[in-house]
Amino acid sequence: MKSGEYNSTHYHTSIGSDMGLSSVLMLKRPDWYGVEASREEKPANGWLEFSGGDQSPLSISQTRVDAQVGEFYMYFHILYYILYILSIVQMK
């Protein structure tokens, strides 16, 4: 990941279990995430996106949340996710 790029889609592995969990806890947020790199009418900067890959007609294969301080997300480690946080953001 280079300065000014988003954190890419990824998942975590578990050596000891096929049923591992991952989590995200929003501890702190900057006041501004920088210039919107995607679509200004549908901002992504600072958002957390989960993608399960399920294409079933009645399933939700992808969701994006504007995670706020204090929110905690727990999910199976094989679920893909993206953190739309630019690496140039400095926390104060």
Layout of SSEs?
Layout: E1 21-25, E2 48-51, E3 62-65, E4 72-76, E5 80-83
Relative strand content: 15-25%
Instruction: Work out the radius of gyration.
Output: 14 Å
Order of helices and strands: EEEEE
Discrete helix count: 0
Return the average pLDDT rounded to an integer.
75
N/C terminus separation: 22 Å
Read across the widest sheet, the strand sequence of neighbours is 3-2-5
Number of domains: 1
How would you describe the overall organization of this protein?
By secondary structure, the protein is mostly beta strands. The protein has one domain. It is built from no helices and 5 strands. The strands form 2 sheets. Strands 3-2-5 form a 3-stranded antiparallel beta sheet, with no helix packed on it. Strands 1-4 form a two-stranded antiparallel ribbon. It is globular and about 40 Å long.
